[in-house]
Amino acid sequence: MYMIKNKLPSISTLFLSLLFFCNGHAQEKLYPNTFDLNQVTLLEGPFKTARDLNIEVLLQYDMDRLLAPYRKEAGLEPKAPAYPNWEGLDGHVGGHYLSAMAMNYAATGNMECKQRMDYMVSQLKECQDANAKNNPEWGKGYAGGFSNSVKLWPSFKNGDFKVYFSSWAPWYNLHKMYAGLRDAYIYGDNEMARDIFLKFCDWGIELTAGLTDAQMQRMLDMEHGGINENYADAYQISGDEKYLSAAKRFSHRQVLNPLSKGIDNLNNKHANTQIPKFIGFDRIAELDDADKYSSASSYFWETVVNHRSLAFGGNSRKEHFPSVASSIDYVTEDDGPESCNSYNMLKLTEGLFRKFPNAKYADYYEKTLYNHILSTQHPEHGGYVYFTSARPRHYRVYSAPNEAMWCCVGTGMENHGKYNQFIYSRNQDALYVNLFIASELDWKEKGIKLKQETDFPNSETTRLTFIEGDGNFELLIRYPGWVEKQAFKIKINGEVYEHAAIPSSYIPIEREWKKGDVVEISLPMKNHIERLPNIPQYVAFFHGPILLGAKTGTEDLKGLIADDSRFGQYAGGKRLPLDQAPILIAEDVESVGKKLEPISGKPLQFKLNVKMINPAKLELEPFYKIHDSRYMMYWLTLSEKGYKSYLDSLSNIEKKKLELERRTLDHVATGEQQPESDHYMEEAKSNSGNSHDDFWREARDEGYFSYKMATGSQSNLNLLVRYWGFEWGQRKFDIYVEDEKLVTVDNTKKYNISQFKQETYPIPESLLKGKDFVIVKFVAHPNSSSSAVYDVRLVRPN
């Protein structure tokens, strides 16, 4: 292998490696220190069960419906109607689906997955050829399904971004099919996919050739997925330097520059917009000895994992990274981390590990794999989860096949097909055992077969048996960070293997391994707590790496299985008051983790023997097993002296929040990407930003912004708008409902106080009667600006 421990490859070494692998397996060519998916077989256990269920779900999807946007944009007749959900992002799930087919074929040899993969690739080739013929000015090589391509890309090519910025994330959409084609080649060995992929990359280079550097950076201000990663992959696949140059050109300096210097500027940025960029930075660093890109990706990982991630490994709330001051949103808001975020963080982790095989990466990988990824699949119907709420006593909703084409449906399709990807890895002749998952490794190059037998996490042991082959090499076994010092034990053929390793490291064992050798590993798990980032009074319980949660009831699980509606990904059941959830009382919070009592006959289930306010008979169990229920993940933990005043304050806040939620028919979190897209925002001469740990949007000089809002078929409603009380300049604007002026607002120096102010505007019944939706529009006066609008609601009167 070309990779040397803890040392990046030189360009010359890389080029020789590319030539060396030209006749090898495609996956190995791209990620040389990983084992091909077909070299690692999952044995019976939770991950094999999840993978097999996911294949059953995937085979229920209609490929022709997934391909319909691609045929439409190429000028071909679709063979079936396109899926309607998340219109505007037509085609994005098709790319994920192609990746999933390739991965599952590689992992299992399932021939239906291969046939579906090959069919999709052949259809995409037809679309690519039709684009070259039907759209010769801009379409040569195009293999995208983005809606309105014929208007978008010609103007974009000429530097006119009007259509681009009024569209919903075009490059983000295309990134999914770039990745799907790449995966069909590297996992599925489909040579046609390789050809389409490289031609598609050539299309992107040609399309952007006339753009200035400043225009490229402005274009990258919109979410664009991991386009830079795709171009780095094209460079490694082809050896052509033009793709590496393109990867760097598609790299967003707004985050690259500061994070490469150790400056965290992530507050209030859309989380999953950022993570794929850093996967791309890491790929560039992997291929080009690029210190700046390497520093940015590694520092990003450190700050997200150590300061911005929750107990189950996920990150963000309301899809954005909170500041320290707004971290309380993790438990007050419904919208917890997206599954997409963890999908991408694991991909970044794999990339960093390839260069620097450090146990901290595997520790995080294991934690997130069990507690987030595994938990986002329903164990019976196989539905996928978008948001995993950390709010006490809230719940999650699931997708259904052929409905709900969310981003996290796309990544969910892939998640469960990659469980065997990181169990083992290698570095030159060294073999790493990263995860304790029942599996069998076929190390073909060494003629070695290794079987790992374990019931982890139900048991605290795993057993490695060499079932075929002999050889001298170094076996490195991970000593997890959650095992106490001097507690990790190893026996080789019944003899104790002495070591001086510490938690979160690898134990190297170099010897002549022979068929029949057995390595027995003891992994004693301890109970401990983790605190919510920046909110230390909220704690989560762990047994080893396994997050423990508690079911709290099935009250009002509205939309548990989502329909095809625009907002089906949100758990629509009522919020339950935080001050009425179980609250733990303890003087020594760190000791609470030691007060878990195992329940006889129920592995990994515990009673919580701690004094409580609002006590309930709850049992702790692995969070990944909790479904179709409200739950507790984080527990408010207070001292005897402090709880009364804290609860009084919390109770008052909760009453006001829940009363407003009860009255709300529809709500737009202005300035936030997803809520504005969900409400079909239209705008001109408007901009958005973040202040006071909240998002806003404003219009200027006759500009406007508007939202399509649901009335619930009610006609006695008010419009609630939230502003910041201290603003500079002229703030005169009109608010329209259904193109009729509702009110003229002059907020110029109106409040002069640094507080949020909420205004109520009654809506005439004539504008609402008989309408399920209305358009609410904010229009700035000439030579003036609207106020920065932080929140818009349609509400029932008090």
Please give a structural write-up.
With 798 residues, this protein is α+β, with helices and mostly antiparallel strands. It has four domains: 405 residues, Glycosyltransferase, CATH 1.50.10.10; 99 residues, Immunoglobulin-like (Sandwich); 105 residues, no CATH class; 131 residues, Sandwich (Jelly Rolls), CATH 2.60.120. 34% of the residues lie in helices and 23% in strands. It contains 22 helices and 30 strands. Strands 12, 13, 14, 15, 16, 17, 18, 19, 20 and 21 form a ten-stranded mixed β-sheet that branches. Strands 1-4-5-6-11-8-9 form a seven-stranded antiparallel β-sheet, with no helix packed on it. Helix 5 runs parallel beside helix 20 and helix 14 crosses helix 16. The longest helix is centred in the first third of the chain and has 24 residues. The radius of gyration is 27 Å and the shape is globular. The protein starts with 10 loop residues before the first helix and ends with a strand. Pfam families: Beta-AFase-like_GH127_cat, DUF4986, DUF6805, Glyco_hydro127M. It comes from Flagellimonas aurea. This is Glycoside hydrolase family 127 protein.
